[in-house]
Amino acid sequence: MPENNTHSTEDAAEIQERRNYVAYQGIPIEVRAAAEGEESRTIGGYAVKYNTPVVITDRWGDKYLEEIAAGCFDESLSRCKENGSEIKALWNHDTSRPLGSTKTDTLRFNMGDTTGLNYDIDLPNNTWGNDVRESVKRGDVDGSSFGFICLEDKWSKVQHEGEEMYKRSVVKAELLEVSPCTFPAYDSSQINCRSFERMKADTKEEKRLEELRKEARLLEIADENNKE
């Protein structure tokens, strides 16, 4: 198969994916500092660091590297400012417990940050908003996850710790939500990357074709020897 392979939504159905890299990239969230004498209700941090590969294990136990490329969410974030499209902040991905929204400016992203997807949430003054603030302040909740739809990714073969692996670079995606989460590690049973499934199928087919080519060549050699 080719060393590099690019997929877009033209050849793949859109499906929401969720990732939580905090345990692998060291990117905890925190309660932001407030003016002296005031109590901060803003939390924030990095949802992901750009161009920083993480080993992903899918539901079948197969491993690959994955990274979010710098600029991956630029178009998605720009649309929020231009036409009012909305990205939500949720508590543990629970749509019944919203924490903020780009529409109301209670969820904000630092688009000039080239290190990663940096965000701030102004927490609501309600039960779960207060719970999230206290949990982040105490360190009980120290990570965040993000949900996205991949619009374009690129696959390549790389060496990682002495092993040849596939690497997926998500180069363009629609950001749907960010969520402070109780558990920092992703659940491999929930990883269902159709792009990787297609890559594995392509590799299997390429190996099958290569075996057929070898068999055909051996038959040609045998015929040539018989003629002699």
TrEMBL record:
Q: Which residues form a coiled coil?
A: none
Provide an example Pfam family for this protein.
Answer: Peptidase_S78
Molecular function in Gene Ontology: peptidase activity
The record places domain Prohead serine protease at 30-200
Q: Which UniProt keywords apply?
A: Hydrolase, Protease, Viral release from host cell
GO annotations under biological process?
proteolysis
Q: What is the official name of this protein in its record?
A: HK97 family phage prohead protease
